[in-house]
Structures are given as C-alpha cells and as structure tokens.
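Feature request, filed as a ticket because there's no other form

It would be nice if the structure record came with a short human-readable summary line next to the tokens. Right now we just get the raw output. Example of a typical job, pasted below so the devs can see what we mean:
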Amino acid sequence: MKKVLMVAHQFPPVGGSGVQRSVKFAKYLPLYGWEPVVLTRDQGKMVLRDESLLKELPENIEIIRTPAYDLTVLPGILNKVGKFIAWKILIPDGEVLWMKKAVKACLERIGAGDINVLYTTSYPYSDHLFGLEVKKHYPDLFWLADFRDEWTNNPYLTDKPHRPSRMKRERELEKEVLEKADVLVTNTPIMKENFVRLNPGLDLETRMHVIPNGFDTEDFEGLPKEKTKNPQFTITYTGALYGRRKPDLFLEAVGNLVKNGKIKKEKIRIRFIGSFKHEVLKNLINKNGLEGSVDTIGYMEHGECLENMMASDAMLLLEGGGPGSEAFYTGKIFEYIQTNNPILAVIPENGAAAMLIRDTKTGMVCDWSDVKAIEKGFLDMYESWEKGESIIDPDYAEIARYDRKVLTGKLAELFNKFNKVD
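Raw output as currently delivered:
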C-alpha cells in the first residue's frame, strides 16, 4: 500500500469542527490503496478535546506526535500574554513554534524512503510551511496543500487585518505555498474562484481542485431513524460562536415573534451546543425576552452531539455577512443535512452555504441581516412542526455527492493522477 504523510496540527484527540476533514480522510484513504502516516501535535493541554474521534482511525495507524508549544493554554496571568504572542506576534500563527520543532521529525520520516505523498492542511497555516521545508530537501516528493479556508482573504482576517508588515509577509508565504505545492485543494467553488482571481499567473484554474467537506454515514449508525415530535419545537445550533458568526439577529427575530403573540414562548426550545461565551449569550437571551426557552450547553463529544441533533425538530445554521462571507460553508452543514431535520439557515443568501441548502432542498435560507425574513422562516418552520408536516423535500442524489467516502476517493484520485502512481 502506498503511503501519504499527513501533516495536520488539528487531529484527534483535539476536538472541534476543524478536525473532521483530516480524520475522515485518514479513516477512508486505505479503501483507495493509501496508508496514512500522521504528523501532529502531542496530547497535552488542548482547548477542546474529544477522545471519541480516536476510534475513527484505522487500526495500527502510525501517528507521530511532537510537542505543541501552545502559548494559548498557559496558566494564570501568562495566558493573556501567551495569546497575544500567539495571535498577534508569531507569523503566520502560534503553531509556527510547533512547526519549527517538528520539521526535523517530518524530514526524518520522509527520509525512511517509503512516503509517496506529502499532504498538508490548514488551519493552522503553519502546516503548509512543512511543505516549503520538505521541498528544499525532497524537491521531487509530491506535495498536495489543502486549504480548508482561505488564508489572507479569510473574512475573519479581512475584518481585523494584522499590521501591514505582517499582512505583507503572510501574502508572501501564501504565494510561495501556492507556487511550490504540486497540487492544491480547497473547500468550495467560490473559494477556488477567489484564489484564482487574487493570484494571477499561478495557473490555479487547473492546479487547484475543489473537495468540499461532507458527512460520514457511519457516524449516524445506531442513532434512531424514526422522528419523534418533541413537546416543544426544538431547534439546535452546534459549534462555535465568534466573529461574524453570532445569534443576535436570530434571537431578536424569535423574541419579536413571542412579543407579538405569534408564538408562545413555552412552546419553543432553542439549544446552543458548543464553544461560546455563555454570559454574552445569556445577556442576549434576556434582552429578547427568551429566558427559559433557550439552553446554552458546552462542547460535547461528537457522538453525543449527533444524538442531540437527531433528537431535534430543526437545525439552526448561523453565518454573518461581509466581504468574503459568501465563499465558505461550515463542516457541520453536512451533518445537519444527514439528520433529515429542516435547516433554518440565517446566512448570506447568495453564498456557498445557501446554494448547497437550495441544491439539496434541505432547508430555508433567510439572509443573515434581514430580521423580518428570519421571523418568517422561523414561523413557517414552527407552524409546519405544529401541523406535523414536512417543510423540506431532500434531494438524496445530490446529498450523496457529499459522502466522506466519495470525497476521500477524489483525494486519492489526485494522489494517483498527479503523482503518476499506478
């Protein structure tokens, strides 16, 4: 079996949505004749931890773990100092400390002579710096760089850009990765369009390929398929809330429906499950008169989270607008689709996520900035629940395109085609 060295700082038992893509590729690559060898961080202090994800991996998988040097988990007063250095000083991110120490282990493993492909994935962007170092020592080793999100055109960075000198340096690093990687992959067609437009002369139209995130049918095995109507209309959001991704206008819209007597507060249950500032969220809940109708629940392991999603009546997707926001969709959207619950999508109405929901016919899109549209979407979904009617008609043929096994097969095709391995 051919071997691919996967450089992925975010890898189990690290938890969170960013881990899913790499762990699913590692899980299913052996089906296509590729054995993953993973280079990642150690199992020390982690902001989010999910031991259950380790069970996803192939038996006897080779994992090389090196010290993380994570400045964001320092104790006491040092924590703020560490975060400032990691987020504001180090280029391109705090994980560059890990990269500089781990590159020796990377080169030594490649030196064993049995690695056919190098795969690097971002975030963190420091993962791609491994590729630049490897190319200096092994220029003929095939390197595929996977951008789960954009780099210098990332909307969270365009909202709060670094100092000009740092932005210049990061653009230089990004361009070097785009130039020297043999093949590039990104997450959505719009992301690819942005990379092509912003980097003329690099032939990204042909060198960059789109492999979206997806769902793993095995994650849903053993979960109840039959839907039971909850005594309250239960809509669930899972994941992090930060930056543009916030529930302010959604909660305002639901609060308006309650205040205007269109929905009884005691008949709804809104659940936020994941990583967010609980006090900030509770203040928003109280401000909109929704106390007692909203649950705020911390991060939970992936399997338990799926159980809670399946037991809901609807799913809530949130994404704010602004420059670049139309380019991406979060990984959880595909798991939302697999629940067969209708998705209330409070997102940019012309973005990649909106197109996906319309194409799969799995939900209702309400532009993130239009409170009246959000009110109507929530009310329509509530009333269909109340009547016991389905408000969606999923296109299962379209949905099947996003199966993790199918998507991993596309990655393996790139390894085979461009690496010229029979």
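Something like this underneath would help us a lot:
The two ends are 11 Å apart (CA to CA).
The chain is about 40% helix and 15% strand.
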